[in-house]
Amino acid sequence: PEYIELVRRGLYGPALKLITEKNPLPFLTGTICAHRCQNKCTRNFYDESIHIRDAKLVAAAHGYDALMASIRPTEKLPGKKAAIIGGGPTGIAAAYFLARGGVQTTIFEREEKLGGVPRYVIPAFRISDEALDKDVALMERLGVEVKCGAPAPSVAELKKMGYTHILLATGAWQAGELGIPGNVRGVIAWMKEMKQQVKPCLEGHVVVVGAGNTAMDAARVAKRMGAHATILYRRTKKFMPADEHELQLAIDEGVEFIELAAPVKQAKGMLLCDKMVLGEPDTSGRRSPVKSGEQFSIPCDLVLSAVGEQVDSDLMAANGIEMERKGPAFETNVEGVYCAGDAHRGPATVVEGIADAARFAEAVVGAPYEYEIPAQAFITESDAIAKHGILKMSGKCEGERCLQCSTVCENCVDSCPNRANVAVVMPDESHQIIHVDKMCNECGNCTQFCPYASEPCHDKFTLFQTAEDMAESKNPGVLFLDADHVRVRMAEERDYDLSTSDNDLPVDIEALIFTIRDKYSYLFA
Prior knowledge:
Layout lengths: L1 H7 L3 H9 L5 H7 L19 H19 L10 E5 L3 H12 L3 E6 L6 H5 L8 H12 L4 E4 L6 H6 L4 E4 L15 E3 H8 L10 E5 L3 H12 L3 E5 L11 H9 L3 E3 L2 E7 L2 E12 L5 E13 L2 E4 L7 H6 L18 E3 L2 H4 L4 H16 L15 H7 L10 H4 L9 H5 L5 E5 L5 E6 L8 H5 L6 H4 L1 E4 L2 H6 L4 E4 L4 E5 L3 E5 L9 H13 L6
Parallel strand pairs: 1-2, 1-4, 2-3, 4-13, 5-12, 6-7, 6-12, 7-8, 15-16, 16-17
Antiparallel strand pairs: 9-10, 10-11, 14-15, 17-18, 18-19
């Protein structure tokens, strides 16, 4: 919310600086991030979410020169030297955070340029090399050493070179195996090959097996390169793991979809498939595909396997790393060696890789990174409240549409059909939410509408009507015994005398209780 407000004010340089305090890849994430944050945006309850990703890209485009001019290398910490194997998003982010924290850092990348899967696999129509170059330049500005175009030295060799911390940030470059005969290729290697083409070079029928974002990209590339493109999936569109907007882009470009089908073999320009039906839900919550006993064939000259990309296990094994043995702070079983991003999680999103990189860098530096948010990034509570209920459709300034939940969020109040959540106005005019136990039937509305990982009906400070009600609940809260005596449950449950000045109640809790008693007594009378 803070950088969106800065963008609204046209303060693009400060907005981009604030973004890069936690996210050193603003062009990459401003262009292809899955923007799962938008699924939790409160604006969804009114019309549609704030276009957070787009606001980030606006800041990146207009604030880049000012940010680059302000970056200076940090004084190096003694006794710490980091090597990063892998120059994809996780590696770039880790190098940025480490160098900013004063750690001498080198990236080793086997390809000719940094960028990993976004540069060498993701199609240019989704993100350009120029955008990636700008993100890389932010990192290089901090003094990171970059060595590209050759395999990285082994862990043992790096330790001999004086590196105290070695991070494996290798991406998931290996395609999952379909295990069927015929003309079958892994989608990653094929996409890398296609990215080197500048004009249509395909014909015939290409079938992509899988339904994640990579499968959508591959089908769109095949279509643009001249082939008839089909996505084959053993469940239905409803259960496809691809982001909804990626699925829609593939549909809009004319990609054909065949649902409830699994490949058996490819031969003589045809693909034999099992017809599937949906059975009971599995551990992922999706209904399991089951063979129906029927088969059918479709035209197919090439099958692309886009199922379950994997990390290079041979690299790990060659360095004595056991992937299933991971300790705190991304430690492996080898002392001084860590893994993050895909190498830690399996196929992961860019933002997950950045999050790993930030936590790893903090562990290496030995202290949390602190930064200031500009005063212009904040708005008043009254201005935030005034935005509620006013429809502003997308296409307008996103900052004007932002409801500033970080300033005031009262979704649990607005969504409760029983008015069990109440906004209490404190003496300093700030708002606090209290939960009124007697009004709640635990319908779950407040939990569904909360943009945070919270259950307001259980987490909010609760006002109890009777001692029996309080005993039946585990919520923190208060029971008024009489005008001056209360029973309060926090870490422990105790009775307090409000008429004394030394009652040991925390100042903020005492102020809330006095406010309820003096201004909102109707809630428990």
